[in-house]
Amino acid sequence: MNDQKDAIEIDLLALAQAVWKRIWLVLASVVIGSAAAFVLAAFLITPLYQSKSMLYVNNSSISVGSTSFSISTGELSAAQSLVKTYIVIMQSRQTLNAVIEQAGLPYTYDELKEMVSAASVNNTEIFEIVATSPDPEEAELIVNTISDILPDKIADIVEGSSVRVVDYGVVPVYPVSPNVTQFALVGFLLGGVVSIGLIILLELLNNAIRSEDYLIQTYNLPVLAVVPAMAGKSRRRKGAAAKNGLANERRDA
Fold first, then answer.
1. What is the Cα–Cα distance from 109 to 64, expressed in whole angstroms?
2. What is the pLDDT of residue 220?
3. Using an 8 Å Cβ cutoff, are 141 and 129 in contact?
4. pLDDT digits (tens, 9 = 90+) for 31-47
5. Contact call for residues 48 and 175 (beta carbons, < 8 A)
6. What is the pLDDT of residues 161-186, one digit of tens each?
């Protein structure tokens, strides 16, 4: 059991040394990775802008079809159900087609539906409409057109309803995506992980015998003999002897 633990510690140490010997590769990889991710986020990905408006649901007694019911300000669960109903009406084909016509948008119903969303604000009777577009002014136009059209559409469908605009959308100044900092951080981490993983993989696939200690520790085999690296010295001696012989022949001639 102790031998296995020792072997694991030695392997981890060898891997750490292999990574340290090629630390320049890791540093280069993280720099290249973060720079590539930064360029991708800053120049190649289309930025998206969001504009938001808020509407308030105020109902005392409403009816949907043949069903009538009343709610108070304390019955938030019922109000939240109404918010969900109004969101469905907002995303309906009738409402969004009216938005496209009034705002003069170059989108189909399906395209515009993907660009807008809505949700309750902190489980209250207020719901928020969000429009996302690559054009900040277009995002503001979409969300405010919906805010103008939606109360009338809801009133036509849900009797006794009262929806009022709390806050209109404004032209956004900064994009919501992509996040350049997050992209650069991901590129940094990805470059480091890939480079370290490659170094470790090459080290694990390297079966060359590096030293006597490596042979004993890895395979637990005794070293019977060691052949010294004399080939280089022998070639240098033969070369020197050949030069001396050639020089002697020239003097004799």
1. 25
2. 62
3. no
4. 999 999 999 998 999 99
5. yes
6. 778 899 999 999 999 999 999 999 99
187, β-bridge pairs: none
Cα 227 from chain centroid? 55
Of residues 148, 141, 129, the one with CA closest to residue 91: 129
Determine if residue 104 is left, alpha or beta; phi over 0 gives left, psi from -120 to 50 gives alpha, anything else beta: left
The conformation of residue 122, written as its DSSP 8-state character, comes to T
Q: Which residue type does 120 have?
A: S
Look at residues 166, 173, 110 and name the one whose alpha carbon lies nearest to residue 139. 173
Residues in the chain: 253
Task: Please tell me the predicted confidence (pLDDT) of residue 6.
Answer: 46
Closest CA relative to residue 98, chosen from 145, 168, 47: 145
- Residue at token pair 């190649």: 44
